[in-house]
Amino acid sequence: MRIVSYPGGFGRLEGDAVVPMGADIAAWLRDGRAEEGEAVARSSLELLAPVPRPGKIVCIGRNYVEHAHERGFDAPPEPILFAKWANSVAAPGATVTIPEQTSQADWEAELGVVIGSRCSRVPADRALEHVAGYTCLNDLSARDLQNRVSQWTRGKAIDGFLPMGPALVTPDEVGDPQQLWVRCRVNGETMQDGHTSLMIWPVAELIAFVSETITLEPGDVIATGTPAGIGAARTPPVFLRDGDVVEVEVERVGVLETTIAAPHAA
Asked: Most buried residue, 33, 36, 124, 265, by most Cβ within 10 Å?
């Protein structure tokens, strides 16, 4: 099942139509029940992020060896956690404005995991039971702000710097989350071409690790890390500019498109 959100509700995507399922996706994530309404044309709806205001967004840094190496680091001994907040979430197809405080906005294509049931200290072999579905994420990053200090928040949790969507895809459609291609294209040129089998810590282990100390609730999102190919690691570096179109594609999950705007274009 592919679930989309729109102003005033959410629904099940069926081809070119959306079957309304209610007003509160959080309630569906919590109890799995919803009454379906009459289908409406997909083209008549403005899509929001699948989870427009997550309670928590837990991001994983350097979860692919080649990405750690391109940043000049060894693979970390345990998952690196950092946070974004609901202000960072942007809808599929949205235009994201780069703040004037950075000149080094960069892309990071990622598999997003949406939690469906409360879990605390869950073992890895039971962790995927708590997944409601998967989505595409772009962990946009201001490298100059990120690299000034040891804490990454200022360069990561910027307004609109987590495009998400276009849909939440349930596990029965996705299958093994460690068997997915993750790609990023900028203006049609492939910049990242990775595979989730190359994660240092797979999805189940990430959920287990996070839930050791942070209780995960329905609607929380885990950004599982990005493969190699970011703009900052290129020679010369390549950063996002006004008018750039970024596509994040995750196999069996979808394609997320975002347009970049410079401050003067806001």
From this structure: 124
Q: What is the mean pLDDT of residues 245-249?
A: 98
Q: Give the residue among 234, 94, 232 at the shortest CA–CA distance from 155.
A: 232
**pTM of the predicted model over 0.90:** yes
Under 8 Å CB-to-CB from 74, ≥6 apart: which residues? 68
Q: Is-contact 260 163, C-beta < 8 A? A: no
3-state secondary structure 119-133: ECCCCHHHHHHHEEE
Residue 85 CA to residue 153 CA, distance in Å, equals 10
Domain 50-265 classification at class level: alpha beta
Residue extents of the structural domains in the chain: 1-48, 50-265
Q: What is the pLDDT of residues 52-64, one digit of tens each?
A: 999 999 999 999 9
Over residues 89-108, the pLDDT tens digits come to 999 999 999 999 999 999 99
